[in-house]
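WARN no homologs supplied; continuing
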Amino acid sequence: MDLLNYGDKVGIVACSNGLDKSNIIKMTQLENTLNLIGLKTVLSDKIYRKISDFNGTGKERAEILMKFFKDSSIKAIFDVSGGDLANGVLDYLDYEIIRHNPKPFFGYSDLSVILNSIYSKIKIKTYLYQIRNLIEDYKNKQIKEFKSTFMGNGNELLNFNYEWIQGNSMEGIVVGGNIRCLLKLSGTEYMPDFQDKIIFLESLNGDVHKMTTYLTQYKQMGVFKKVKGVILGSYTEMEREKYNPSIIEIIKEVVNNTNMPIIKTNEIGHGKDSKCIVIGGGIEIT
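OK structure emitted
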């Protein structure tokens, strides 16, 4: 994909919950790793918690993000946070400035709200991926695939294994992310248009009741009548605890349409070995 070149400067932000200061060592490891693969890092001064989970107000966190978008020397922005607070920055982002200063923005989990808002407002692709994977359990494989995919001509980090639940082909533009967090955009100007899209949904926490509730809300919003396909990512708690019914059984019952293409992958989500999916990017699966 060749998004980044050796020597490029990248920004590190935390637009959702601030990190506990116990993560300082890990953040130093991340900086060192990015430096070793040829990227120079610029860290936000609002990475760590100050009050409760807050590392600044929504406006303050948005100002940092906008500063990085406006800085032409920064070629990509990686968000290292997650949690609950990312939607607090949405009203303070200047989407026209982002439109005229486009650069790859990466995040996962609660950052689904920013990833989808940027695509929804200005049709710029964003990347559902956690850069901290480069220093976690599968770091050697992650570093290799990151370099090949985003600093070379490979696409390993974008290719994922899957199984068909129903149907045999789907094609469209991907929207979505964390099943719970994306719902925070309901009723706002930031929710993407689902018409003819492929919706991707994953989850870290949540039992059968929560997954059923979330998927029912998507159904009642008319999402499953608009999209051309569903990609289920990993459902960490559901799959770890082997809850019954499974996420596959729940989605089939809620969608209640055998003509809707659905696939399941365990390779995109909250796992430290997770791959990347492009929000606003086209996908064709046959």
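The chain is about 30% helix and 20% strand.
OK
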